[in-house]
Amino acid sequence: MTALNRREALVVGGAAAATAALASLAPAARAARPAAPVGGQPAGFYRFKIGSHEALALCDAWNTMSPAHPLFAPEATPEQFAEVMGEHFLPADRVTLYVNVLCVRMGGEVVLIDTGNAPGRGPTSGLTAAHLAAAGVPPDEVTAIFISHAHPDHVGGLVSADGGLVYPNARCFINRVEHEFWTGASPDLSRSGVPEGRRAGMVAAAQASLEAVREKLEPVRGGDTTLPGVELVETFGHTPGHTSIILSDGDQRLAAMGDLAHNHVVMFARPDWTIAFDTDPRAAAQARKTMFRRLADERLRVFGYHVPWPAVGHIAAHAEGFVWVPQPWDWSGG
User: Residue 265 is part of a domain; what is its CATH number?
Assistant: First the structure.
């Protein structure tokens, strides 16, 4: 092995720490725990509307990643990264990674966009099913799940602590390219910044979740008709089949952007900057810029999987990049 310079060591170290946080899905049993951490904030779900559709933002997890750079923005120098973070009054040595799951009642369908982490991974992770039930939606009422991509923090919540299905009555839609990649003989993560020793764990995690719902899976492509009011937009790059989902009712629309951004500052201010988990960093940056431009031009509301709670807002063009504009908290639930 060749010796690593300081920058390479930081990339490997940061990616290893984050991968350990995200890629520990395993079919082994996990201990049950209360719906919300003792001493934490009580809000685990947030109600809002998409036209007449009832929507819930569900808090699945929040975790601190440190060091933040070069796990985030490996293209940047430490000084560049610190400058962008400092402009938004944020520290440069750590980043909070939020995980937010969307549930929408659309007529007779109860739809989830992704499922969060595997249950029992810690007191601030894998909370989706508990918060969904607390909001009055038993998991067996979910009829459809749209999987943006198969990273563990998006599909881990498909499987319960005892190995059963959390959402036994749900059809599961996944992009055909994404499904073929993760279930293939040797998924190629060589262009990502994930350390080689961690890649097998990520693949195993994805395959375990997808195998558990194999009989429920329905591979699709961008533009395919699935449910009324659902548009699938292929935003390939973060993973080979990464897909964003636009939900609509009349003239009201909301885009669940998935992992086009992992932070509410870094990838908006500098959309060319990437994250170590990108399977194809260049394609991920291009998909982000293209989709962000569409979302800004069409003034769509956006649900951000990794932005601060409750994760509903807009994307606006700003300077050479974009800016995340949170929607004000609506006490009416509308």
Answer: 3.60.15.10
Tokens of 73: 């923005």
Cα within 13 Å of Cα(167), Cβ side: 32
pTM of the model: 0.88
Contacts of 240 (CB under 8 A, 6+ apart): 177, 178, 181, 279, 280
Three-state DSSP at 70 gives: coil
Does residue 34 belong to any structural domain of this protein?
A: no
Please tell me the chain's helix, strand, coil percentages from 3-state DSSP, rounded to the nearest 5: 30, 25, 45
- Please give the chain's pLDDT, 334 residues, in tens: 333 344 444 443 444 444 444 443 333 333 333 444 445 667 799 999 999 999 999 999 999 999 999 999 999 999 999 999 999 999 999 999 999 999 999 999 999 999 999 987 777 899 999 999 999 999 999 999 999 999 999 999 999 989 999 999 999 999 999 999 999 999 999 999 999 999 999 999 999 999 999 999 999 999 999 999 999 999 999 999 999 999 999 999 999 999 999 999 999 999 999 999 999 999 999 999 999 999 999 999 999 999 999 999 999 999 999 999 999 999 988 7
Q: What are phi and psi of 45, to 5 degrees?
A: -145, 155
Alpha carbons 215 and 158: distance in angstroms, whole number: 13
> Which residues span the domain enclosing 145?
6-24+44-326
